[in-house]
Amino acid sequence: MSLSRDEAAEALRDVERTQRRSQSAFSYRGAAPFFMLWGAIWIVGYGTSELSPPNAGWVWLTASVVGTAASVAIGMRMKPGKRASFDWRIAITWLASVGFLSSILTVIGHVTGDQVGAIIPLLIAWAYVVMGAWMGWRLILAGLVVAALTLYGFFHWHAHFAGWMAVVGGVTLIGTGLWLRRA
Amino acid sequence: MEQPDATIHQPVRLKIMAALKGIPDCGPLEFVKLKSVVGATEGNLGAHITTLENAGYVAVEKDFVGKRPRTRVALTKVGQRAFEDYVAYLRDILDTGSAA
Asked: pLDDT per residue over A2-12, tens digit each?
């Protein structure tokens, strides 16, 4: 029982292809609950911005804190075969993102609520595309769809941009989460 | 390795091992997910997993999530070593034109 060079090369290609598919499937499954969680938060936050703007501030703040705590909890439960533990890399990534965004918005100066409501999803869409480059094409597609819907809503549904993001953006994130879970 | 490991030297079993080696801590991975990654039928995959389990290369865990039965498969330490040796054997063929 021996292999030719061609057979060995084909077997190694099979190994690499399978490992890539397996890594993607694992990453997708890990990312899915975060998409669904934040989709629900977008529906609540943007929905409040659309229907009850005076309450939007505290609702967004509460939803963001709840979302962050839930994300940390999900991340801690996800370590395969290990006891749940706090991952500082997630906290640092989160804090760096919030700090970066706050700095950018401070430097830009006066921005409207709708502009902030568009910039944040665009930054998130960018993050999906970058993560997708490492984890799999479905995240790239999710990022492109979120960015396209955000830009379309901002320019064509400006009067009801928050409502657009609640319904279209939130549902897209939840749908993406379900799609990733089945991958 | 002059002769390849006969247990891994089968395309579906090689893919099972590669799929499990590709994820953090080498698993566990759910049977359903493994089926879609490997692209095998349920019966075929089950038979090959049994062969790998008998060789000590994978560990199979069966439990329930709520009322739904779940089967998960993970690569054992012995399996990891065997897979690495097999990949080294393949690379050796590519590098030298024949197995060492």
From this structure: 788 898 999 99
